Amino acid sequence: xxxxxxxxxxxxxxxxxxxxxxxxxxxxxxxxxxxxxxxxxxxxxxxxxxxxxxxxxxxxxxxxxxxxxxxxxxxxxxxxxxxxxxxxxxxxxxxxxxxxxxxxxxxxxxxxxxxxxxxxxxxxxxxxxxxxxxxxxxxxxxxxxxxxxxxxxxxxxxxxxxxxxxxxxxxxxxxxxxxxxxxxxxxxxxxxxxxxxxxxxxxxxxxxxxxxxxxxxxxxxxxxxxxxxxxxxxxxxxxxxxxxxxxxxxxxxxxxxxxxxxxxxxxxxxxxxxxxxxxxxxxxxxxxxxxxxxxxxxxxxxxxxxxxxxxxxxxxxxxxxxxxxxxxxxxxxxxxxxxxxxxxxxxxxxxxxxxxxxxxxxxxxxxxxxxx
Length: 372
Ligand SMILES: *Cc1c(COP(=O)(O)O)cnc(C)c1O
What we know:
Layout: H1 4-9, H2 12-25, H3 32-44, E1 49-53, H4 56-65, E2 74-78, H5 84-91, E3 95-99, H6 110-116, E4 121-127, H7 136-146, E5 149-153, E6 161-163, E7 169-171, E8 178-182, E9 196-200, H8 203-212, E10 217-219, E11 222-223, H9 234-265, E12 271-272, E13 287-291, H10 296-306, H11 336-344, E14 345-348, H12 356-371
Parallel strand pairs: 2-3, 2-4, 4-5, 5-8
Antiparallel strand pairs: 1-9, 6-7, 8-9, 10-11, 12-13, 13-14
Helix pairs in contact: 2-9, 3-9, 4-5, 9-12, 10-12
The chain binds pyridoxal-5'-phosphate.
């Protein structure tokens, strides 16, 4: 699904220089590269404040911590997401309230979010799944009217933009009170280990998040709040500075591959291509199709695999039926769209190093599989 060695080989010399300088300078925690990377990523995202942290799950934890929600506060989360979105809330003693998603964009259904609001709701977590924005227009309006915070889990859509009815264009992750992302190696901007960051437009909130990510300390050995040890290593920041410079090219490669899939896969029987949210750009963290029909998705995936083509199912189970979250009391059948997506979605290789010939082979074999 991903050829990181080939991607890195293109700028291996830059990566080598970055880690060698880090080793020589030996400022491994909170070294200068961390702040430099944060400033560069902030500029890339239209001037947002960026607070680096240890991973995307910690970013979600820190975002929720910064809201000071009392235990038991309800946090609305889509049922079709990676488990981390839910995990952070549960570990903080908050109560996740799941909502179903839209069958075409795979993102939270604003009507379901509205219906899930109660006087106990403290936040809504929007997940920009697979690379395009959730309905930020509606979600912002709902959260503002209800007086609850909007958190954006932007682990998959870094660099995507959303155009509001007013004409305002905003980067994913910079619209809500706090945005979060992950630099897990397979993300569109991945480091060479674990990493994450938070985004906000509010300088005071950025300072607070920075404190929370570093043991809640305002100055050395003065702890204002109970925080986390969740810092981005200097080494990862130095490597991310290199990778950020190459992100636009990688992004363009993903988008070109997606456009070619759109043309090659049109009209295949029983296959639904990814639907573009017209107000959002799409950075194609995944190119995810739906294969309709009982058991057909798994048969198509097996056919691809038999022909040496990797593919992946994100996600095979809705978070509502994960054993760890059984105590939330959800039953099978409560999130029909999310549950059907779990049976139908299939993500195809869309990594920047995929050649046109390789992609054409994927399309041909997928065409055979769909015709069977
Ligand atoms: C990857 C991911 C996370 C977690 O990020 P880590 O850095 O692995 O902790 C959270 N939410 C979503 C939607 C993700 O894709």
